[in-house]
Amino acid sequence: MFEVKRFHDISVVGIDGELSRRNAHVLDELLHSLAACDQHNVVLNFEGLRHLDYRMVQRIAERIVEFQCDGGDLKMAAASGYVRRILEAMGLDEQIYSSVEDALLAFLGEIPGGEPQ
């Protein structure tokens, strides 16, 4: 369900299948583990995410704030139109990058302000 890859000081967390209340604790533990290891720059790769329980959007927003308060950031990338609509409907107005590569480049400052999809 979750796969972590590292690119320099950025962790990319691939999420496959469904993110719901049943498995959200696993994502929370993974993100807390990354932060505890001083991995404060994270990209959530939604490319394989087929369904997002709308109740999880607030949790994602809280994690974004936590990472930003720790001096890093949590970026989202490669969301399908369906997942993007759920995020937007629940009021998450953070930028969603069209690809993981764009999110990584935004961390490196090569895309000023990023390229929203």
Describe this structure as you would to a colleague.
The chain is an alpha/beta fold and 117 residues long. It has helices spanning 24-36, 57-69, 81-89, 100-107, and strands at residues 2-7, 10-15, 17-19, 41-45, 49-52, 73-77, 96-97. It has a single domain, classed as STAS domain (Transcription Regulator spoIIAA, 2-Layer Sandwich). The strands form two sheets. The protein has a five-stranded mixed sheet with strand order 1-2-4-6-7. A two-stranded parallel ribbon has the order 3-5. Strand 6 (73-77), helix 3 and strand 7 (96-97) form a beta-alpha-beta unit. The protein starts with a strand and ends in a 10-residue tail after the last helix.
Q: Short summary of the structure?
A:
37% of the residues lie in helices and 26% in strands.
Q: What is this structure's SSE topology?
A:
Blueprint lengths: L1 E6 L2 E6 L1 E3 L4 H13 L4 E5 L3 E4 L4 H13 L3 E5 L3 H9 L6 E2 L2 H8 L10
Parallel strand pairs: 2-4, 3-5, 4-6, 6-7
Antiparallel strand pairs: 1-2
Secondary-structure content class: alpha/beta
Tell me the distance between the termini: 24 Å
Instruction: Report the radius of gyration as a whole number of Å.
Output: 13 Å
Round the mean pLDDT to the nearest integer and report it: 92
| Side-by-side strand order of the widest sheet | 1-2-4-6-7
**Topology-level CATH name:** Transcription Regulator spoIIAA
CATH architecture classification: 2-Layer Sandwich
* SS element count, helices: 4
Instruction: Let me know the number of strands.
Output: 7
The proportion of strand residues reads: 25-35%
Taken together, the total number of domains comes to 1
Task: Spell out the CATH superfamily.
Answer: STAS domain
Outline the low-pLDDT stretches.
112-117
